[in-house]
Design brief:
The protein is an alpha/beta fold. It folds into 2 domains: about 30-85, DNA polymerase, domain 1 (Orthogonal Bundle), CATH 1.10.150; about 90-375, TIM Barrel. It is built from 12 helices and 12 strands. The strands form 2 sheets. A 10-stranded mixed β-sheet has the order 1-2-3-4-7-8-9-10-11-12, with helices on one face. It starts with a helix and ends in a 19-residue tail after the last strand. Bound molecules: S-adenosyl-L-homocysteine. S-adenosyl-L-homocysteine binds near residues 189 and 327. S-adenosyl-L-homocysteine binds near residues 143, 226, 227 and 322. Keywords: 4Fe-4S, Cytoplasm, Disulfide bond, Iron, Iron-sulfur, Metal-binding, Methyltransferase, rRNA processing, S-adenosyl-L-methionine, Transferase. GO terms for molecular function: 4 iron, 4 sulfur cluster binding; metal ion binding; RNA methyltransferase activity. Pfam families: Radical_SAM. Its cofactor is [4Fe-4S] cluster.
Length: about 375
């Protein structure tokens, strides 16, 4: 019976029109709003403006969204403010842990049933949260699990921020071996193409870097936004005054192969996407990360390493090689160790800084490109 109450009513035939949004929007949350907008929202409730800062501090600094803990807010006002500004945005469906408890993946159900995943990773001296920016993804890269099911919808700013706050709560609670700590890094490398949900993603980055009570007070240097290479959005991001690290998922140095591995390449070619990356580096002063998943006998040939080195030489750039995490049913696998070594050697010989990414979270399908939220 209770199930029935939660099942949305089926629309009548002809009820939906093209200008009506098909889906309801995620609930509005204080993390969607600037500090000034939060004050306005509180005043609209007939409450003093400073309550907005108090509640923001509870959410971002004390990581509390439980009104019963807001002892500086009169009890009679707590539920009213909570309903208005800290509605529940997501609930955990599944938690999976590996790497001796140092990697934790959470599958979240959003208000409309959409599923997304986030991954908390503890390293010596740093804690990284990998977050989703869309439920699903429309970019259709054939080697990526998220790409296979297509795009469900964009996430709101607060839904993105909430993943980081949830991770911050977990790592602060001490359940992860190594004792309580803070989230130092956020990577937009979960489900979705961040640049295809630009406004919400930039809003989320602002909340992450804003000082208390506006936001989490993180350093922009610890934040990485990863993209398939939506060139106009890369140019726009460079002008936001947010010196985040830009990661470009290149995966091939030549258009012929990149057209198939990253289909959006048919719209913006390798030269164009690299120019946008250099533009980003010039404007922000930040070194760009080039992501390159090494796929056996597909993109791991020595000549491609040389071509890649030639295209990157002399630039403010770092290459991140990711051994392919095979997705279910995929015909592709990770490169042979000797081919990987040779690829690294040719890049280094070409004067390009390179590291091979670890494969954290593999056993729980929480590694790069494995997030699929199949429930
Ligand atoms: N849409 C963004 C962020 C998504 S994932 C982007 O494409 O950049 C983050 C990184 O994981 C991207 O570089 C993506 O290409 C890579 N990736 C996707 N599937 C992978 C897989 N199966 N193995 C290794 N890396 C993968």
């Amino acid at each position: 019976m209770t199930e029935d109450l939660e099942t949305p009513r089926k629309p009548r035939v002809g009820e939906l029109t093209f200008d009506e949004p098909r889906r309801r929007k995620p609930p509005r949350h204080l993390a969607d709003l600037t500090a000034a907008e939060r004050r306005e929202a509180v005043v609209a409730l007939g409450l003093p403006a400073f309550r907005a800062d108090q509640v923001s501090r509870h959410y971002f600094t004390r990581l509390s969204n439980d009104p019963s803990e807001w002892s500086d807010v009169p009890a009679a006002q707590r539920d009213q403010i909570a309903t208005e500004l800290t509605p529940a945005l997501m609930s955990p469906v599944r938690e999976l842990t590996c790497d001796e408890g140092m990697t934790r993946k959470t599958v979240w159900r959003l208000f409309d049933g959409a599923l997304v995943e986030s991954v908390l990773m503890r390293y010596p001296g740093r804690v990284t949260m990998c977050v989703s920016s869309q439920a699903g993804c429309g970019m259709n890269c054939p080697f990526c699990a998220t790409g296979q099911a297509g795009l469900t919808r964009n996430m709101s700013t607060a839904e993105i921020v909430e993943q980081v706050v949830a991770g911050a709560r977990t790592i602060a609670s001490g359940v992860v071996p190594g004792g309580p700590a803070r989230v130092s890094n956020v990577v937009f490398m979960g489900m979705g193409e961040p640049m295809a949900n630009y406004k919400s993603v930039v809003g989320a980055v602002r909340r992450l870097v804003e000082k208390s009570p506006g936001g989490l007070g993180m350093s922009a240097r610890g934040i990485t936004v990863s993209t398939v290479g939506l060139v106009p959005r890369m140019h726009e991001l460079a002008t936001e005054g947010l010196p985040v690290t830009l990661a470009l998922s290149l995966h091939a140095p030549d258009d012929e192969l990149r057209d198939t591995l990253v289909p959006v390449n048919t719209r913006w070619k390798v030269t164009e996407v690299l120019d946008a990356a250099w533009d980003y580096a010039r404007i922000t002063g930040r070194r760009v990360s080039i992501e390159y998943a090494l796929i056996k006998d597909v993109n791991d040939q020595a000549w491609r390493a040389e071509l890649l080195a030639k295209r990157l030489r002399g630039k403010l750039v770092h290459v991140n090689l990711i051994p392919l995490n095979p997705t279910p049913g995929s015909k592709w696998t990770a490169s042979r160790p000797e081919d990987e070594r040779e690829f690294v050697r040719r890049l280094e010989a070409g004067g390009v800084a390179v590291t091979v990414r670890d494969t954290r979270g593999r056993e729980i399908d929480g590694a790069c490109g494995q997030l699929a939220a199949a429930e």
